[in-house]
Write a structure and sequence with these properties.
mainly alpha, 11 helices, elongated, VTT_dom, cell membrane
């Protein structure tokens, strides 16, 4: 976190805002690579910089929201155009991973709502828009829920940075960010955990039904 904050502080404000836009946009547009991008951390760092006057708060929030929304739109387009081909060429270590199975089940169970449920989890945030496009989720509903998710997620991340920036001297910014990171990790893991458990139950029920049919 401190390294990213230092890097952002070293560049002009307009370039920092561009980075705050581009990182959330690239996550769903580049699904597998997107999981390696520190978009959530960058948004938190922008909040710290905004508190210290290096960035305007409204601009940081606006660019974060627009980047998140643009990323979902691009991810949906990628899924519509290349979704089946991408899925067919993914290595087994990806398709067999817990994150991939959770994202697949979330889209299958919740359709467009998956983009809202998975907004705070990096694996779901990255994979769900592409899967929604591949599944043919209608544009209007997907776009509306994407906007709502972006309006919840992006300002929350920037706000964490603002709070940490305000408490830097009194409480220690690193401690505040660590605590905030733990809270975000716990809350962001819940949708993925519920989806994975639901997926496991559905798989077990399917196997049980198949066993009963075979026995009968």
């Amino acid at each position: 976190m401190a390294w990213i904050q230092g890097q952002l502080a070293a560049v002009p404000a307009w370039l920092t805002l561009l980075i705050v836009f581009l990182l959330p946009m690239a996550e769903p547009a580049l699904p597998l690579l997107g999981m390696l991008l520190p978009s959530q951390t960058a948004l938190m760092a922008s909040g710290v910089l905004a508190h210290h006057g290096a960035l305007p708060v409204p601009a940081a929030i606006a660019m974060a929201v627009l980047g998140a929304l643009a990323g979902n739109v691009l991810g949906h387009l990628v899924g519509r155009r290349w979704g089946p081909r991408l899925a067919a060429n993914l290595p087994e270590r990806v398709t067999g991973s817990r994150g991939y199975r959770a994202a697949l089940h979330t889209v299958g169970a919740y359709s467009a709502r998956a983009v809202l449920l998975g907004r705070f989890n990096v694996a779901l945030r990255t994979l769900v828009p592409v899967m929604c496009g591949a599944a043919g989720v209608p544009w209007a509903r997907f776009l509306g829920l994407s906007l709502l998710g972006s309006l919840l997620w992006a300002p929350s991340c920037v706000a964490v940075g603002l709070i940490a920036g305000g408490s830097w001297q009194k409480w220690g910014g690193s401690g505040m960010l660590a605590a905030a990171g733990v809270v975000l990790l716990l809350t962001s893991s819940l949708p993925m955990l519920f989806s994975y458990r639901s997926s496991r139950r559905a798989q077990a029920q399917t196997q049980e039904g198949a066993a009963l049919t075979t026995a009968g």
